[in-house]
Specification:
With 277 residues, this protein is mainly α. It is 61% helix and 5% strand. The strands form 3 sheets. It has a two-stranded antiparallel sheet with strand order 1-4. A two-stranded antiparallel sheet has the order 2-3. It has a two-stranded antiparallel sheet with strand order 5-6. The longest helix has 24 residues.
Amino acid sequence: MNYLRPLWIKLLIGLLLVLVGIQWGIHQPLPDQLSKDVPQVFLLPFLERPQTYFYLHLFTFIPVFLLSFDRNVHYYKQWRYLWPGILIMGALFILWDSFFTLSDVWGFNENYVSGVFFLHLPLEEWLFFLTVPFASVFIYECLNFYVKKDWLQPLQGTISLVLLLLFLLGGFLTWGRLYSSTTLLLAAALLAYLYFLQKSPWLGRFYFAFLFVLIPFLLVNGVLTGGYTNEPVVLYNPEEFMGIRITSVPLEDAVYGFTLLLGITAIYEWRKLTVDA
């Protein structure tokens, strides 16, 4: 029966993508429901300015860019493997982002952005898909260099299966909440592809790195979701997500980031194997 496994996995992935497409087609979020009511950690008055989102990109990108020329990690030498993944996944997520903005699943507070919009997204949101992955893969590379042992490799199968089951269960239980269900089902589809079909050997290292990535990710996203400002930069429709927050950050944001970085890392690792082969 083992020869059937790839077929069943492909059918599962196809089903998940079809279900996401159906939900995008039939579900109509209520308009004008974006909420500014979020739990605050503490206020940082210096963030109360139109350049807030842009400054976050400078804070994220510049230190990593300078550290890219470190004599040990040599991150700058990996850029040729990295940028295609960032551009491919970024394009897909921008389309997702734009659709959700048009659908009133989320929106952007114009008090904290430049006012330059493309495809209904502020310029700063476009930059998010460049700076955050660039910094996150840097953390992944640093850990690969300085932590030689792949601590989670013996557990990567168990972790993958547990995450897959959680994503599937969560995606079906939140059916009708567009952000929750979409994010969880797409995360399940990508993880199933990489674990069962690609048998990616680097998943343990990715899970290990993601634990570290979560710290700056939650800090940056905490600013965007209103943890440190009078109002959120990103506004959510409360009917379209579970309402579970890590400080001010919706739980779905962590899964959204996980999926984005997992896809980029997959392309990144594939290119490292094939470009110089």
